[in-house]
Description:
Layout (H helix, E strand, L loop, with lengths): L3 E5 L6 H11 L5 E7 L10 H11 L1 H5 L3 E7 L21 H4 L3 H15 L1
Parallel strand pairs: 1-2, 2-3
Amino acid sequence: MKYSMFIGRWQPWHDGHRWLINQRLDEGKNVLICVREVSKSDDNPYNPIDVKKNVEKELDDLIKLNRVKVIVIPDIESINYGRGVGYEIIEHKPPKDIKKISATEIRKKLALNEETTD
């Protein structure tokens, strides 16, 4: 079974991420979501195992149908390929409403909510 692979930090999972994978799911393709194993920081407040669990929770129905798989991969510096390797490299350009979604802004709001509930 072949998959369309998406590599990211997914910190946190949001509607823009869902739009992105839906581009392939809506074409009847399966999706492999690769969670980069990045070090914790302000930009990466969640560890990769927690990210994987969160994405799996969000996509549970698709995982049960074997349409989506989620794995953790080592952090990468680049994506490289040779000629005629048997797969495509596809860029998906989101519409304005999806493009404006910012995981950074979502993390700021989550941090504010945590501060106000403490």
